[in-house]
Amino acid sequence: MDRNAVRQDVPLDPQGRPIVNTVAAVSIAPSGVGSELSEHVAQVIGVIRDSGLPNETNAMFTNIEGNLDEVLGVVRDAAMVLAGQGYRTEVCLKLDIRPGFSGQMAEKPRLVDDLLDGR
C-alpha cells in the first residue's frame, strides 16, 4: 500500500464484502448524573474492551480499530449500556476510514515519532 496515494484498492473478505479498516475515537458519557462520570464511563469502556477489537483509552477518548461495521457495532453496543439504563447519552465519534490499511493505531503514532526523531 502506498501511504501517500489518495485512493487505495479495497480488499474483499472471503464473501466478497469490502474490508474497510477504521480507527475510531469515541467518547460516550451520560448527561445530568453529576460532576464525576468515571463509574458510568467505566461501564462503556468495559463493553469496548470486551469486544475483542484493538482499543486504547486516554483521558478524553477511547480509540478502537477494526472493520467499519464492527467498529460501529461496538460504538452502538457501548452507547446502549447507558441509554439502556435510561440515561440521556452523549456520543462524540470521529472516524478515520482507510481501506487497505490495518494496525493504524500503532502505525500512525510511530510515523509521527519517526518524523520528530529526524528533525
Automatic annotation (TrEMBL):
Pfam families: Thiamine_BP. GO terms for cellular component: cytosol. Residues 24-112 form the Thiamine-binding protein domain. Belongs to the UPF0045 family. PANTHER family: UPF0045 PROTEIN ECM15 (PTHR33777). This is Thiamine-binding protein domain-containing protein. It comes from Bifidobacterium cuniculi. The lineage of its organism: Bacteria, Bacillati, Actinomycetota, Actinomycetes, Bifidobacteriales.
